[in-house]
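Technical annex, item 7. During the second reporting period the consortium partners agreed on a shared format for inverse folding records so that results from different sites could be compared directly. Each record opens with the tokenized structure and is followed by the designed sequence. A conforming record, contributed by the partner at site C, is shown below for reference.
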């Protein structure tokens, strides 16, 4: 039994064939530059990898080509055992607090939510529509916002005129929920108890923090959109909204220009010119002042969030790092944990230095807070949620 997990973007289609029981990724691939003259296709199955360049006009042709690749390179569709297709969907609004089997009504609700995620939901729908047409198994939508639908009202509500907020559906939805749910559950599993006050730091290109008490999210750093919160690869994270008024009135910038500035030209990229943490880290090590300041801003923001979430939860049992930076950047983990020494956080330097794909504790035995590294696996989380719905 396998689940085909699809992440459909406006001009791309990424997929992974997952065995939800063993957690194995059996095959994976992507189609990029859909709609351009020359699209790129990549499909991997075991040791075999195929890279092709060919025109792919739309998502329907992209998925048809992917299905051909399964038959040509493997595993053949007749033997792949696909029982469901799981779709990553960024915005589930207030409609979805868990995954949903996609029927016409669910499809239309995802479309209705497009104004809240204009870059994502319409792109997901392209993948959903063609998969429903071409693969005759249940299609399931797994929402990035679902884990945070149950946030306490105090955490989800902006102090905005309540009629305006209601009219335009403005509240904190969060994002990366599939990862925060998967990782916080993995911590509970690993430690053998769900009764934990957890902070999870998902630090990838996008970055977010969550506070989780006994398996339920009680706060998260992303808000109406993924722009709010931590410093990210290209996003500002928290910024005074009055910066928008200022850039508009004094800088003469349009709404779209400011949107691009905040979402695509800020964060690490805005501060250093590089959005990749490895490049920023190595420049800082060589003494580059911009890179060092960027890391200081990143760490300062992380420490602030961990501290505030500890206060919100009335304590902290576990602090978990995940995603590209969280799983790999031992120096960043050390910098954050050093600043939390006042809370009794003690890092085990040797354990922190170990590189591994396994869930592991990197704090000392006598640390007041257990610090962990947990590899996230959003595809597996989507596959498991899809299976549990069937
Ligand atoms: P995405 O949000 O695109 O899924 P990832 O979770 O793959 O992102 O994380 C990408 C980030 O992880 C990049 O900033 C990259 O530089 C960083 N990263 C990967 N490996 C390392 C490493 N060894 N040290 C520091 N940062 C790393």
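Designed sequence (site C submission):
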């Amino acid at each position: 039994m396998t689940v085909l997990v699809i992440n459909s973007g406006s001009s791309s289609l990424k997929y992974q064939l997952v065995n939800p029981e063993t957690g194995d990724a059996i095959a994976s691939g992507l189609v990029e530059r859909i709609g351009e003259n020359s699209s790129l296709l990549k499909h991997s199955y075991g040791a075999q990898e195929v890279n092709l360049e060919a025109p792919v006009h739309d998502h329907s042709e992209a998925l048809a080509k992917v299905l051909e690749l399964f038959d040509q390179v493997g595993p053949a569709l007749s033997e792949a055992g696909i029982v469901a297709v799981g779709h990553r969907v960024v915005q589930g609004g207030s409609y979805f607090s868990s995954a949903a089997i996609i029927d016409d009504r669910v499809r239309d609700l995802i479309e209705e939510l497009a104004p809240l995620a204009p870059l994502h939901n319409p792109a997901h729908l392209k993948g959903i529509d063609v998969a429903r047409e071409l693969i005759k198994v249940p299609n399931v939508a797994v929402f990035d916002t679902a884990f945070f639908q149950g946030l306490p009202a105090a955490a989800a509500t902006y102090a905005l005129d309540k009629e305006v907020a209601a009219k335009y559906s403005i509240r904190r939805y969060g994002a990366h929920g599939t990862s925060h749910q998967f990782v916080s559950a993995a911590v509970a599993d690993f430690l053998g108890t769900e009764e934990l006050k957890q902070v999870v730091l998902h630090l990838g290109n996008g970055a977010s923090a969550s506070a989780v008490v006994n398996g339920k999210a009680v706060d998260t750093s992303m808000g109406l959109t993924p722009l709010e919160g931590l410093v990210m690869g290209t996003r500002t994270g928290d910024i005074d909204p009055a910066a928008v008024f200022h850039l508009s009135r004094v800088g003469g910038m349009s709404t779209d220009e400011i949107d691009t500035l905040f979402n695509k030209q800020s964060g690490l990229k805005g501060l250093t010119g590089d959005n990749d943490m490895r490049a920023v880290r190595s420049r800082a090590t060589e003494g580059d002042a911009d890179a060092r300041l960027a890391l200081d801003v990143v760490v300062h923001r992380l420490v602030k969030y961990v501290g505030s979430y500890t206060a919100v939860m009335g304590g902290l049992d576990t602090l978990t790092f995940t995603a590209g930076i969280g799983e790999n950047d031992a120096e960043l983990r050390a910098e954050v944990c050093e600043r939390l020494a006042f809370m009794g956080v003690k890092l085990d330097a040797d354990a922190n230095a170990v590189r591994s794909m396994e869930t592991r504790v990197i704090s000392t035995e006598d640390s007041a807070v257990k610090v962990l590294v947990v590899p996230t696996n959003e595809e597996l989380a989507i596959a498991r949620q899809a299976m549990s719905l069937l």
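The mean pLDDT is 97. Residues 204-206, 233, 276-278, 281, 323-325, 328-329 surround adenosine-5'-diphosphate (CB under 6 Å). All partners now use this format for quarterly exchanges.
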